[in-house]
Amino acid sequence: MKLYHSPASPFVRKVCVLLHELEQTDQVALEPVTTTALSSADILIASNPLGKIPALERDDGPTLYDSRVICAYLDHRFGGGLYPDGPARWEVLTLEATGDGIMESGVSMTYETRLRPPTEQSPAWIEAQWAKAERAVAALNRRWMGHLAGSLDMGHISVACALAYLDFRHPQRDWRRGNTDLAAWFAGFESRPAMQATVPPAA
Fold this sequence. Notes:
Blueprint: E1 2-5, H1 10-21, E2 29-32, H2 42-47, E3 55-57, E4 64-65, H3 67-78, H4 88-115, H5 123-143, H6 145-148, H7 154-169, H8 180-189, H9 193-196
Parallel strand pairs: 1-2
Antiparallel strand pairs: 1-3, 3-4
Helix pairs in contact: 1-3, 1-7, 4-5, 4-7
């Protein structure tokens, strides 16, 4: 299998952390591509018409895209158990969606400041995206710490990659302020070998 990726993408990092946690990194080759909201590499578009990463090219089926689809597929294929059955499954999916939503807001903020000239940037848009992320982080600290203290699942990975992305691209926002329990949890989680092996390069 081949994963079209960029190491700076938090959505790609989710997939890579999962592969490390399941000890299956040798099963997926990493294919670097350059893509932004304004342009995508032709090789990526040939596999994913949306031109987005990550995209997982398989030998036995069509290319999969969207990090949630890819993570669910890989977890199923390798028997990882990161998406439990029963009522707990819905909590995991909701927590994963919360982490992904934080990533979406953070990436949108990054694109607004990096891809648009200053005269075309919308401070209101940037602040609206940050408000979404800020509310979600506060909800994690208020509602989800019991779950995060439990056994590893895909919700943990999504949340950790989201918080790491805020540190990576928006450190001045200081998501830890007022969220001490979540900050303490993340300090432990980011030391896991799977997280350390997937730290994006400074850029």
